[in-house]
Amino acid sequence: MHFRRASGGVTFGDMLQTFTVTTLIAVAILAAADAAQDPMFSGGDRYERFMGRWSRELAPALVKLADVRDGDAVLDVGSGTGALSAAVAAAAPSSRIVGIDPAASYVAFARQRHPGDRIRFEVGDAQHLRFGDATFDRTLSLLVLNFIPDRTRALNEMIRVTRPGGVVASAVWDYGQGMEMLRVFWDEAAALDPAASARDERHMPLSRDGELEAFWRAHRLRDVSARALSMRTRFSSFDDYWSPFLEKQGPAGDYVEDLRPGQREQLRLRLRKRLLGDGPDRPIVLDARAWAVRGTVP
Predict the structure, then answer these.
(1) Cα angle vertex 114, ends 96, 148, to 5°?
(2) Looking at the domain assignment, is residue 2 inside a domain?
(3) Which one, of 112, 115, 110, 90, lies nearest residue 99 by Cα?
(4) Could you say which of 43, 75, 92, 130 would form a disulfide bridge with 136 (CB–CB 3.0 to 4.6 Å)?
């Protein structure tokens, strides 16, 4: 095929080749960006089985603590699979809700699960919110703040986009003692492998009593109040407890992925013994506690 040379000595073929190369580069960049998302949390359906089902139970308590009112503009930071946004929509049917999350797979899952224009989910970074100052009446985050690399910047951004007199609220698991599902897991992992202690989520920031409240006060929010949110996690069987750990979700799932098959089986047997003793399979009920805080923007 022959191409007529355009002015300046550039042929249509040259232009087509440049366009093709540019397109390929753009596709590669997008693919790399998607792959760069935190591998601990990817795949909405897998996260739902591991932690999302408990997020749905915890979310209404945070909505109540934040005193979300019908008609409020609400931002859900780290919206994941949409549990908190859905709880806001249920409690305040006329609210305008935006959920942001860095994982495109979670955003796609949330959009599919919560269709319609009442809630808008989009890819976004809590450390660099795209919204203008004082855009929202309430800005909330559920079970995410201690996973954000620059938590101080994220909280500053949450405050910035919330109007004066508005509320900023958050909740994180009590990984040290109160989240029994994970406490049992890490206790048994460390009993088999002392090196597992270094990966135990009890070391997560903001997860001890008083830390989240102190963080809010350090950012000069007014009328700061904190409380424990307690619930029960109910598993239909031991496999319902164990199998989500095999799907590489969160630090615990990441740890299981790194084990050799024999080590993984040893851990499974120890956990079964811990939860069921020598008895047959049966439903399992474990306690769960999160620390929650709210404060008013001055």
Answers:
(1) 75
(2) no
(3) 110
(4) 75
Q: pLDDT tens digits, residue range 121-176? A: 999 999 999 999 999 999 999 999 999 999 999 999 999 999 999 999 999 999 99
For 227, phi and psi rounded to 5 degrees?
-160, 165
Q: Which two tokens stand for residue 38?
A: 């935190």
Burial 146-176 (b: 16+ CB within 10 A, else e): bbbeebeebbebbbebbeeebbbbbbbbbbb
Q: How far apart are CA 177 and CA 4, in angstroms?
A: 74
Co-location of 133 and 247 in the same domain: yes
Characterise 46 by phi-psi region: left (phi > 0), alpha (psi -120 to 50), beta (else): alpha
Among 87, 26, 20, CA closest to 55: 87
237 HSE (CA, 13 A, CB side): 5
Scan for tokens 């020598």, then name that residue. Answer: 278
Residues 158 and 128: their CA atoms lie apart, in Å, by 10
Element (H, E) at 231: strand 222-235
Q: Which helix (H) or strand (E) holds 221?
A: none
- Residue 155 shares a structural domain with residue 210: yes
DSSP string over 81-101: TSHHHHHHHHH-TT-EEEEEE
More confident residue, 31 or 115: 115
In this prediction the pTM is 0.84
Asked if residue 138 belongs to a domain, the reply is yes
Domain assignment of residue 98, yes or no? yes
pLDDT (tens digit, 9 = 90+) per residue, 280-291?
A: 999 999 999 999
Q: Biggest alpha carbon distance in the chain?
A: 84
Q: Choose between 46 and 210: higher pLDDT.
A: 210
For the record, the structure tokens of 123 come out as 């890819």
How remote is the C-alpha of 196 from its chain's centroid? 23
The whole-angstrom separation of Cα 259 and Cα 257 is 6
Quickly count: other Cβ atoms within 10 Å of residue 119's Cβ. 23
